[in-house]
Amino acid sequence: IEIAINNPPAAGDRVEIFNQVAETRRVRDVAALVAEQTGVEVNMLPNPRQEAAENELDVANRKFCNLGLEPTTLDTGLFTEVTEIVKKYKDRCDPTKILPASFWNKKRAEECASLDPNSITIEDKASVNGN
User: Fold this and answer.
1) Residue 131: its pLDDT value, please?
2) What is the DSSP code (8-state) at residue 113?
3) Which of 45, 83, 90, 109 lies 20 to 30 angstroms, CA to CA, from 3?
């Protein structure tokens, strides 16, 4: 936000739109990164939303980067920071709240009906890969 404030459009110019995003990733790619970094198993679940299975989001942050933004991405430190926070507060996690509880339509609800919220467990994989 500071970068945008410090670089306002000239008087009379159009409003500038900035995408405040460092990167975009598919859920399955984030899941694979988590599994790779922590040793946990990925469980593929039905999507509770009514959307295409492949839905590439095309978002660019070129304007911010051209003004000096140096994004922090999952590969460059954010994953480690989030992992440390998760470890610190893992005792507050209620595993029964992890699975979807609302669905976009009846068909999606039926596809997810077999999911048992009580089947989710939190395992301590702290010793895997030194994490």
Assistant:
1) 46
2) T
3) 83
